[in-house]
């Protein structure tokens, strides 16, 4: 159970606004283990695949334009309940509905500029991790904090 993984990405606005460190700080402080990270200016093909479930939405073209407007920082975080807890840490899709204390609740305003992505289920996490990372980009190590977390 402590090996559940989620895909988290700081979106182009989060990168431009200098929020990468704040996001990493929150996931590290929570106790999740970083197993992969890279900066990537995603292609439209990659983003079309990443957001394939939303392709019929009216905002889809704007979303792809936004997400390809600059580099993102893609990460994989591991730990018990990483997917669900990760979503709680992010807040709601619309920052206006996100509570203070969440990343979106604290750090952004507009639904079209909501600074961060997080997988919404274990199944989509596994799909997204495979889409953004090669197997050999996922680090395998034991965190010295493990026995103090579980
Ligand atoms: P999520 O990122 O919280 O999982 P989704 O519904 O999967 O939310 O939507 C993916 C992304 O699409 C959102 O994070 C946001 O960037 C964008 N988005 C969602 N709904 C809207 C909208 O109504 N207007 C503009 N952009 C939207
Ligand atoms: Mg989503």
Walkthrough of the structure:
With 150 residues, the protein is of the alpha+beta class. Strands 2-3-1-4 form a 4-stranded antiparallel β-sheet. The protein has 8 helices and 4 strands. It is globular and about 45 Å long. The mean pLDDT is 98. The termini are close together. The structure holds inosine-5'-diphosphate and magnesium ion. Inosine-5'-diphosphate is lined by residues 54, 59, 63, 93, 111-112, 114, 117, 120. The site of inosine-5'-diphosphate (IDP) has 9 residues, from loops.
Provide the fold topology.
Layout: E1 5-10, H1 12-16, H2 20-30, E2 33-40, H3 44-50, H4 60-67, E3 72-78, H5 82-90, H6 103-107, E4 116-118, H7 122-132, H8 146-149
Antiparallel strand pairs: 1-3, 1-4, 2-3
The chain binds inosine-5'-diphosphate (IDP) and magnesium ion.
Residues 54, 59, 63, 93, 111-112, 114, 117, 120 line the site of inosine-5'-diphosphate.
State the strand order across the main sheet.
2-3-1-4
SSE ordering = EHHEHHEHHEHH
Total of DSSP H or I helical runs spanning 4+ residues? 8
Question: For the terminal residues, how far apart are their CA atoms?
Answer: 10 Å
Give the tags.
binds inosine-5'-diphosphate; 150 residues; alpha+beta; 40% helix; binds magnesium ion; 4-stranded antiparallel sheet; globular; 4 strands
Short structural description:
The protein has 150 residues and is of the alpha+beta class. It is built from eight helices and four strands, in the order E-H-H-E-H-H-E-H-H-E-H-H.
């Amino acid at each position: 159970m402590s090996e559940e993984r989620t895909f988290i990405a700081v979106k182009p606005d989060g990168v431009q606004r200098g929020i990468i460190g704040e996001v990493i700080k929150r996931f590290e402080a929570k106790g999740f283990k970083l197993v992969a990270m890279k900066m990537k200016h995603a292609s439209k093909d990659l983003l079309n695949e990443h957001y394939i479930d939303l392709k019929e939405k009216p905002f889809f073209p704007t979303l792809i334009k936004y997400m390809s407007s600059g580099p993102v920082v893609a990460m994989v975080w591991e730990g018990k309940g990483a997917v669900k807890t990760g979503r709680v840490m992010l807040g709601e899709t619309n920052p206006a509905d996100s509570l203070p204390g969440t990343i979106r609740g604290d750090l952004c305003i507009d639904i079209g500029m909501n600074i961060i992505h997080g997988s919404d289920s274990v199944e989509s996490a596994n799909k997204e991790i495979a889409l953004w990372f090669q197997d050999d980009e996922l680090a395998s190590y034991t965190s010295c904090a493990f026995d103090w977390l579980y």
